[in-house]
Amino acid sequence: MTAPISTPTYDGRAVINGERIAALDGQTFDCVSPVDGRLLTAVARCGQADVDAAVRAARAAFESRRWSGMAPAHRKRILIKFADAVLAHGDELALMETLDMGKPVKYAKGVDVNSAANCIRWYGEAVDKVYDEIAPTGSNALALITREAVGVVGVIVPWNYPMIMAAWKIAPALAAGNSVVLKPSEKSPLTALRLADLALAAGIPPGVFNVVPGYGPEAGSPLALHMDVDCIAFTGSTRVGKQIHVMAGQSNLKRAWTELGGKSPNIVFADCPNLDRAVEAAVGSIFFNQGESCNAPSRLFVEASIKDAFLEKALKLVPSYQPGNPLDKGTVMGAIVDQVQLESVMRYIGLGTSEGAQLIAGGALASPVAGGCYVQPTIFDGVTPEMTIAREEIFGPVLSVLSFTDAASVVREANNSVYGLQAAVWTSDINKAHGVARALRAGTVHVNQYDEDDITVPFGGFKQSGVGRDKSMHAFDKYTEMKTTWIRIDSPV
User: Fold this and answer.
1) Residue 320's CB: how many other CB atoms inside 10 A?
2) Which residues partner with 87 through β-bridges?
3) pLDDT tops 90 at residue 493
4) Sign of the alpha-carbon dihedral angle for 386, 391, 395, 400
5) Residue 244 has what pLDDT?
6) How many Å apart are CA 433 and CA 449, to the nearest integer?
7) Which residues lie across from 249 on neighbouring strands?
């Protein structure tokens, strides 16, 4: 069943100090749907002046303590109400997400909306369960170790999971008592703006949660360079992440937390306990969200003795991932976010062919909806480690297949990457599973599954996949300062 083709009316204005406002200079940019090329709305093209206004509002809200000074149990109630509102508006948010960035509406609702709401609720529930400490000093002192909100948090999120990535950052930041200025990607800004509306309606005070849409150099850079922003949290490319760290150092040495790119290895040994499950995970995970996932298992290492059998099974699954109309509830692979990203994916497919990889599935544009941005699910065999498609993050539905003969060599090749976000190992041998998992340099290692997940576990990477962790109680480390208060006690007895 396909959703109505008419375009809902969307408000593209920024959210600053609790109000919807146009960019101060009146500039806008067009928000165009990759589903069929329709114009969704004009969005405020925020710049330095708008970022300054948002940061001033956030600082005033923080210093007034109308949120930061609120009892954790009170913040908890408001955040839970916020999460409830996200679920209540789930159909609206899902359609908005699908039209804005192209993902299938079934996943926008079942995954993105539900995950964002769950994240906000979880941190709301967690905030009044974080205890401070008393150090084991001598009897003549009382040393208190307390956590305090860091202050004003700048958040920059990518276009591939706009709601989820925003929730992973704003939920713990808000729960800890900070004020937030969020800069969504210009490719998919609409749900971030709507989340701010819902947050305000739930009771988050004006100025505590602000949203400034715009382009990276015009809105993102001023936020990262701002002298009155205490912390910057970013998810996106490694290239931009490096710039964020430089800007943090050039300005006020603000804390910089970055979740960046990946080229995750998925290693399948001949003693894999369930080959069908491994095939389904390998194919499903690379084609999910059109391959536009930083943790996509884009390097598939299959032991040589089972590679032919593995690929035979994989090729039988490819037809079920052909792109379709994202508004059709039966579609499992939708549109690439925009024409620029589509051209990038096609360039990598061309490089794979020209460098000698064997194209065994896909490799061409698709057109399930006129005017949209679609590419076929693509698999390359015969890939070698030095090929571009084995080294660089493609961010599209392109799988590179490499073979191996022993554990030592595959671990060496798996680790031969600037990235270290996720990895997987499939084996029936518990010693091999533990040994390989321990040897892999990645923030998360999956064993006999891929991408099973929970809000209770941290997410982040090694090497150039970033600094810091999202999710779990560890996220509070990013958005709080640790203070020691030493009290001398002169005992009267």
Assistant:
1) 12
2) none
3) no
4) positive
5) 98
6) 12
7) none
Based on C-alpha coordinates, what's the Rg of the chain?
23
Catalytic residue among 294, 303, 373, 393: 294
The span from the CA of 211 to the CA of 387, in Å, is: 40
Evaluate whether 296 touches 259 at the Cβ level (below 8 Å): no
- Which residues have CB under 8 Å from 120's CB, separation 6+? 79, 80, 82, 83, 86, 167, 170, 171
pLDDT on residue 424: 98
Q: Which residues, at least 6 apart from 114, have a Cβ–Cβ distance to it below 8 Å?
A: 87, 90
Question: Could you read off the pLDDT of 203-236 as tens digits, one per residue?
Answer: 999 999 999 999 999 999 999 999 999 999 999 9
Instruction: Render pLDDT for 116-133 as a digit per residue (tens, 0 to 9).
Output: 999 999 999 999 999 999
259 is an active site residue = yes
Q: Is 148 a catalytic residue?
A: no
**Distance of CA 300 to CAs 191, 269, 357, 435, Å?**
33, 11, 14, 19
| Burial environment of residue 384 by CB neighbours within 10 A (0 to 12, 13 to 18, 19 or more) | middle
* DSSP secondary structure letters along 450-488: SS---TTS-B--EETTEES-BSTGGGGGTSEEEEEEEEE
Rounded Cα–Cα distance for residues 46 and 146 (Å): 37
Alpha-carbon distance 206 to 219, whole Å? Answer: 21
CA 320/CA 377 separation, integer angstroms: 10
Residues facing residue 148 across a β-bridge: 481
Q: Which two tokens stand for residue 10?
A: 């969307």
- What predicted TM-score, i.e. pTM, was given to this entire model? 0.96
Q: Contact 301/403 with Cβ under 8 angstroms? A: yes
pLDDT at 5: 55
d(CA 196, CA 18): 8
Q: Which of 97, 186, 218, 259 is catalytic?
A: 259
Q: What are the φ and ψ backbone dihedral angles of 365, each rounded to 5 degrees?
A: -70, 155
Q: Is the Cα dihedral 191, 366, 359, 348 positive or negative?
A: negative
302's enclosing H/E stretch is: strand 299-303
Cα end-to-end span (Å), the chain: 80
Residue in 200, 230, 219, 213 with CA at minimum distance from that of residue 59: 230
- How far apart, in whole angstroms, are the C-alpha atoms of residue 78 and residue 59? 20
